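User: When convenient, might I ask for sequence and structure tokens for a protein?

AI:
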Amino acid sequence: MASSGPNAQPYKRQRVRKACVPCRERKRKCNGKSPCEMCVAYGYVCHYTEDDGLLAPSRMNQVEEMPRDTGNTPYVPLNIIRNGTHSTDTQNLTNRNIIDRTKSRYTIQHSAVAFPRSLGLELRSTNPPRLHCFAWHCGIRPEEKPNFHVPLSDLVTKEEYYRISKVYFSVVHPIFDIVDPEQLGKNVEAYWNGDAETSEYGAVIAGVIALGSFFMGSLGHPRETDIIRYAKGILDDPTFSRIPSVEQISAWVLRTIYLRATARPHVAWLASCLTIHLSEAIGLHHEIDREDLALTNNVSLKRTTEVSEHTRRLFWSAWSINIILSYDYGRSSVVLNRITCKPVKETDGNYTLYLVALAQLIPQESVNANVAQLLQALAAVHESPDAHPFLSLTKADICLSFYRRLRLLNHILDKSVVSQIIDIGNTALAAAFALVKIDQAWWNVLSTSFQYVCVLLAIDTPESLSHVAAAMRTLDNITQVLGTHIAFEAQKTAKLLLEDSVKKKRQEIQQLEQATHQRSAPETTHLLDIDWDALLDPSDTLSFM
């Protein structure tokens, strides 16, 4: 067993039947785990030998108990398996990830960026290479220079911010809990005091102002467009984009929400994908207290494993937006290898947990999902609570997406499934009209209403067609309240589809009527060819016969 060294951690002496190779070579205490605490703290490549065929008791039949993976791919536990005299510890080593706390950077150990440092540690270098992109390119051209930004204080005053932010925290924050109000308040005061006029947190403040202004309707800030451009300029600035951070991800989520409500679907989808990639870049999808996460500094492990509830809410909000938006738009969502971030907690007045739950109901293999998976997911969506009008609209968006895929699979819906779709759709219609009347113009107050009319016409059953009139009335009312070009365009398109449906029904009726006439026509023609005068003339009866 390894003897005590000068750098050993002061914990109670533990007896292990076998120590790892790095701890034995450095004469440090080993707790027998894989990886052990010492290797995790110092970034060593933890591995064991099998010369005597014995394993430490803590490693025998060991299966890591990790948080249940809720990502796009199933989570595979890091099992320690013995196969004869060959250990599969090397598989664990290749799966280990690295968190660089100094730069908020996450990478996997076998990446080109992490390999030089890993090699230096393996060679017991006194000064191992830092986690850095050595020789990533030839360095022929310098990096981009910082951009010039007009101070946000020139666009909006602090008093205007506080007035507009109240709308943001009453409308957006309950659904997308991505900004810490306390931390935001501190940064706002520092920002307007000139401490950080061009910091990346300025993009977060600008995103809050833009969304608050948007949901104020006609009372929004007159320079809302300039504020959006300011936030985009900060996010695209090479000074801040070189090193991703939690603030960047918060700003990108805010920008994605704004683009989803104002821009084309392709632009919003790109922003949501970029947000997930940035989340992966800093390891936001992982819990740092994982045993297979190696740290690149000597900071105490307990101090680095604290992950705030706000950070989890930020990741799951970004993930949910990407999943739901991609599924509705028919594009691929960003697939992360594994997600071990713990679920968010339920709090009063906050509905982020419900939004995440709806996103998790979407089949993981969304492209190849079969009928059974879609029907099961549809039933689960139907049973989910309508805790907020926006959630009712989101339920309808997912439900209508399920129907469109079932239609492509040529599946004939049962009456119970049709009833589920109609129930979800009617609830969404009421929620849409209630939101639009209070100037909360979420994107799906119009899109869900329009798509629901289309689905009712597509189902084409007496039950579905009986709800078309009410759905059209609600769509007309929403259009009149919004009064925008896109709203009138959707209303006109829905009416054209309705007229085409009526025209198709009339053509079908005419075809049935023609079939009825064709059936009686031969009989009538045969009767008209009879010479009734000759038949009734007695003198001509013999010749006729």
